[in-house]
Amino acid sequence: MSDDRYIISASRRTDIPAFFVRWFLEQLRAGWVDVPNPFSGRLQHISLQRDHVRAIVFWSRDYAPLLPHLDEIDDRGYPVLFHFTITGLPKVLEPHGISVARAVYLAERLSMRYSPEHVLWRFDPMIISNETPPSWIIEKFDETAQMLKGVVRRVYVSLIDFYSKVKRNLSALQSQTGIQVVDPPISEKRLIGQELGSIATRYGLEIYSCTEPALVGAGGIKRGSCIDAQLLESLYPGAGYGVPEHPTRAGCGCFESKDIGIYNTCFFGCRYCYATSSLQQAKKGASFYKIKRSVATPADNGKSIQRVEQLSPLIATQA
Questions:
Q1: CB-neighbour burial class of residue 136 (10 A; exposed 0-12, middle 13-18, buried 19+)
Q2: Model confidence at 297: pLDDT above 70
Q3: For position 312, what pLDDT does the model report?
Q4: pLDDT band for position 287 (50/70/90)?
Q5: Domains of the chain, residue spans
Q6: How many CB atoms lie within 10 A of CB 310?
Q7: SS3 letters across the chain
Q8: Which one of 40, 134, 296, 303 has the fewest CB atoms closer than 10 angstroms to its CB?
Q9: What is the dihedral of CA 124, 247, 225, 143, to 10 degrees?
């Protein structure tokens, strides 16, 4: 295999396993994908041929749509890892997220198929607010860690990043609900980290930060590499060897990868999201995934959503 192989990230920018499985499989079968640069818009042609790809690192809140297709991915010989976001945050913050119990069940399915090392729990982001104070965060982490004992080996933690679009959305959230999200001082962040680290140790979990320097060292928290070539190498010898570090921002320990997602295409509607500005923007952005007819985005009314196959991807529609 060539020395210029790379890791595929699918994806930090959207939730491909939850909403765009059909599209992903079509591109995998085609052996390539064209992805617009998020800044210039210029298309980048990325080969998905097996001999060009070291591994595929998935990121999702809901792996149910992907599970029936893992045989095909495995048969093609791709090494895989699965970042699984499970926060348990209230519906007012994550209106269309699946339940913790459902997420744990899906994590168990992945863990049994591969191993606990393949499934990476993301307790990320932590939202400190008058609705979810530090005591609530710590209790939720404890509850979820207990449920995931033996299912996963690693957990990644971070606090919300206050990007400009995030600040606008949080300001609207406060106006609508009275929920005020705060950025706690470093001393408070480290106290939270110490509690989380103690809980992680109790349940046999290694705990890592995701671009959160204030947490490193607190409670044994290590700087995380969410795209982790060393972990890949340990699970799939040859998959991670020689991959350079390529941090995306301060405190990031990630190794180099190519992301095949596009921003403003996720339908979960999390009120703090940095990757999708709104459900309306997601509806527009999803045209990238070859949706052939109009998409009904979930109304922000607390109703559940279902995922149905349209002509190309899996997308979200109101139940």
A1: middle
A2: no
A3: 36
A4: confident
A5: 6-318
A6: 17
A7: CCCCCEEEEECCCCCHHHHCHHHHHHHHHHCEEEEECCCCCCEEEEECCHHHEEEEEEEECCCCCCHHHHHHHHHCCCCEEEEEECCCCCCCCCCCCCCHHHHHHHHHHHHHHCCHHHEEEEEEEECCECCCCHHHHHHHHHHHHHHCECCECEEEEEECCCCHHHHHHHHHHHHHHCCCECCCCHHHHHHHHHHHHHHHHHCCCEEEECCCHHHCCHHHCEECCCCCHHHHHHHCCCCCCCCCECCCCCCCCCECCEECCCCCCCCCCCCCCCCCCCHHHHHHHHHHHCCCCCCCCCCCCCCCEEEEECCCCEEEEEC
A8: 40
A9: -10
Provide the pLDDT for residue 290: 65
Tokens found for residue 262:
């596009």
User: pTM of this prediction?
Assistant: 0.90
Q: Kindly give, in sequence order, each residue whose CB lies less than 8 Å from that of residue 15, ignoring residues fewer than 6 positions away.
A: 59, 60, 61, 62, 266, 267, 268
pLDDT above 90: percentage of residues in the chain? 83
Quote the tokens at residue 216: 């490193």
CA distance linking residue 131 with residue 199, whole number of Å: 22
> 20: which 2 tokens?
């765009």
In whole angstroms, give the CA distance from residue 126 to residue 138: 10
Closest by Cα among 290, 303, 16, 308 to 317 = 308
Q: Which tokens sit at 146?
A: 């207990």
| Integer Cα distance of 274 and 167 in angstroms | 10
Instruction: For the chain, give the mean pLDDT.
Output: 91
Q: Which of 299, 316, 274, 305 is nearest to 96 (CA)?
A: 305
Specify the amino acid at residue 189.
K
Q: Which two tokens stand for residue 287?
A: 């045209």
- Condensed to tens digits (0 to 9), the pLDDT of residues 243-260 reads 999 999 888 999 999 999
Token representation of residue 298: 């979930």
Q: Contact, 38 vs 11, CB < 8 A? A: no
Residue whose pair of structure tokens reads 């998905």 in the numeric block: 48
Backbone dihedral angles phi then psi of residue 125, each to the nearest 5 degrees = -95, 160
